[in-house]
Amino acid sequence: MPDQSLRTFLANLEQRGELIRFSGEVDPAANMAAIEWKTFNELGKASLFTSLKGHGGWRAVSQILADRRKWSIGLGIDEEDILDEVARRIARGVPTVDVPAGDAPVQEVVAEGEAVNIHEIPSMMTSEHDGGRYLASGMAVIRDPDTGVRNVSVHRQMILNERETGFIMVPRQARRIYDKYVARGLNMPVAMVYGGHPALFYGAGFTTGFDRDELEVAGALIGEGVRMVKCRTVDLEVPAEAELVLEGEVLRDVEVPEGPFGEIPGTYAEATTSQVLRVNCMTRRRDPIFYAVHCGYPTTDTQGTMALGVEVATRDHLRNVEGGLDLLDVRCHPAAGMMMLVVKLRPRVEGQAKTALMAALSGPYLHPKMAVAVDEDIDAGDLRQVMWSMTTRVHAERDMIMIPNTRVFALDNVSPVVPGQNSFHRLGTKWMVDATMPAVTQAEERARFMRAIPRNFESVDLDEFLPDA
Ligand SMILES: Cc1cc2nc3c(=O)[nH]c(=O)nc-3n(C[C@H](O)[C@H](O)[C@H](O)COP(=O)(O)O)c2cc1C
Ligand SMILES: [Mn+2]
After folding, report:
1. Is residue 299 within 6 Å of ligand 1 at its C-beta?
2. I need a labelling partner for 280 at 20 to 30 A (CA). Which of 90, 131, 249, 465 fits?
3. Architecture of the domain made up of 66-288
4. Confidence of residue 130 (pLDDT cuts 50, 70, 90)
5. What fold does the segment set 319-449 form as a domain?
6. Long-range CB pairs of 229-233, under 8 A, 24+ apart, other chains included
7. In angstroms, what is the span from residue 155 Cα to ligand 1's centroid?
């Protein structure tokens, strides 16, 4: 029976040298974010903090899913196969399984009503100008009041007081469900879940059909149904092996000031207003590990998670392009704030790369606004090679195309807000760069665009020549 908690994954990361354990005291309100950000961006490692100032009994982790290597450990998939295998597994859903409260570590400690105090959680002060301490890893389990179908999505929460947080919903599925409750004059029941098997976080960050329960997507990734326990105060269920749950409701008629907050593009979402989550019950493990997701300037788990979802969904979307593509790779680069796609393909006929680029920019995710097509000799995951293609193989007046006034990602600050709408509705310019070699059909033409690589590049083994260490 696979462990569905965070814990086996953390042990695997540590054993593979992918995680650094910090036993000295750190302060979630002052220095934890800088430490975990540098630990990943300078050393490529995840962080586990075992001594948190003001939060005895808690531990925290961060940057555990910021790159493909960590995702491949988390999902038990070879790095090279990750897009194929995720797509293969999630093609069908695996239903959840109910377990009794006695089998649910996440309910070992329960606080209800006045006893709830969110300040106990080691929430992080993340970016320099954030409006407060945030929880950013919460997976909101909700239910569509019309169909009964569950939805799971991640929502940032600014801590407001002992019992309330902000709750930001950009116009996607959770917002649509919230609007249905509001139309009935009701608050929306929610269970926020923190810390679990990486498959849960993948599902929560993944955009799939409105009629699909992301917990069944997670189950498909794990290979068995997610074990769920009934909540104590709302008519919902949560993964029994999670670390922490906040049960409550998103209020129907309240908006409060919220933000600013360092967001997924790497810039700030400006201070605005948000809905409010009122917490009626907090359940947790006896020795909880808080998942302190870093949301802000790349690279963080936020981009690392969303990028993998964009890649899988875009690949699927590209399958429908006329004639079929010889598609070799799709990359959504976290370093580019997730707004750029690289499509690697073997164009078979003239014009096919540009057709593929149009499709890449009209997939299920709004985030990508720029797409670059590269040839089979380019590593789409290496931005240096992508940039090289963009200079040597691009004749801009022919190969660069802009499509103005298209709907773009809610947090893309450079794209203007639609007049009269809230800041989440923006019109921007999608742009495509065809960096594939011209003249697919003419071998002699292509010779001018080949990479001038070192002689005997393939056969030379550097290790044979390096001086002994
Ligand atoms: C760390 C992290 C934080 C996120 N914060 C928010 C948020 O505050 N509001 C929001 O609407 N989406 C947020 N998202 C994105 C949604 O979780 C994601 O788009 C999800 O697929 C939406 O689910 P849905 O398609 O069921 O609506 C966040 C994602 C991650 C990984
Ligand atoms: Mn959904």
Report:
1. no
2. 131
3. Roll (2.30)
4. very high
5. UbiD C-terminal domain-like (3.40.1670)
6. 229/98, 229/99, 229/100, 229/101, 229/103, 229/104, 229/106, 229/107, 230/98, 230/101, 231/191, 231/281, 232/107, 232/110, 232/112, 232/281, 232/283, 233/112, 233/280, 233/281
7. 5
